[in-house]
Structures are given as structure tokens and as C-alpha cells.
Write a structure and sequence with these properties.
single chain; 134 residues; alpha+beta; Hypothetical upf0131 protein ytfp; 5-stranded mixed β-sheet
């Protein structure tokens, strides 16, 4: 199945550790969404926003990888699944259940996300905009 990562799972080493069978395919943009950070964990989330995009990594994952991600993402309590279509193919990602206010991420978490942006060759300008909460 296809999985869209936009936060710490962009980090290739971490993603491989969590999901052994995962394979990075390419970078893609999720349209009409914006990146933010929230919850007591100060973790990445996406929310609908017209004319905005969230850059991310498209991964191929197995059914067992999905089960592992469900545990890491605290599904269905913290995150729920969101599906969209990319060139006719169904893609799964996670979005937070409770849309709490913006919380700046911890330095450790942010460094993992930044490394993921480099791993997937994403433009850090999108991350900077999210951190400015704009």
C-alpha cells in the first residue's frame, strides 16, 4: 500500500527501523492542506487549507508495516487515517483526531523532521512556514 509521510517518518533511517519492508518511492505534494504542529507531543499534523500544500514522502509499505505505524501513531486515539488519491492510486496518511492549538515542536523532534526533509529532498521553506504558524 502507499503511505504519505510528512513529519518524523520522512527520516529514512527511522522509517526503516519502524517499517522494515518500507520503500521510499518519491517526494510528492498533498494539495489543499497545510502542515502544523500540535498536541502535548508537539508533533506534526496536517489540516485542510485551500491553495496550500504539504510536501512529503511517498512510501510503499506492507500490511505489517501499517500495523506497526498504527502503534507508533497511537491510532485511533491520537491519529486517525486519512485517504487521498494520487494519480488514481489510494494513499494513506495520518491526521490528528483532536485539533488542538499550535505547539512548537521539541528540538529533538524537529531535528528528526529536518533530517527527513533532507532525506526526501523537500524544500525546508514549507517547514519554516509551519513553524512560524502561518
Amino acid at each position: 500500500m502507499l503511505y504519505f509521510a510528512y513529519g518524523s517518518n520522512l527520516h529514512h533511517f527511522q522509517m526503516k527501523r519502524r517499517c522494515r519492508e518500507s520503500f521510499f518511492l518519491k517526494k510528492i505534494n498533498l494539495k489543499d492542506f497545510r502542515l502544523t504542529f500540535r498536541s502535548k507531543y508537539r508533533a506534526a499534523d496536517i489540516e485542510p487549507k485551500k491553495k496550500s500544500i504539504v510536501p512529503g514522502g511517498l512510501f510503499e509499505i506492507s500490511k505489517s508495516d501499517e500495523k506497526k505505524l498504527d502503534v507508533y501513531e497511537d491510532f485511533p486515539i491520537l491519529y486517525k487515517k486519512y485517504y487521498f488519491h494520487y494519480y488514481g492510486k489510494k494513499v494513506m496518511t495520518y491526521t490528528m483526531v483532536k485539533k488542538t492549538q499550535f505547539r512548537y515542536p521539541t528540538e529533538k523532534y524537529l531535528n528528526i523532521v529536518k533530517r527527513g526533509y533532507r532525506d526526501c529532498k523537500l524544500e525546508e521553506a514549507f517547514l519554516k512556514k509551519a513553524l512560524a504558524n502561518k
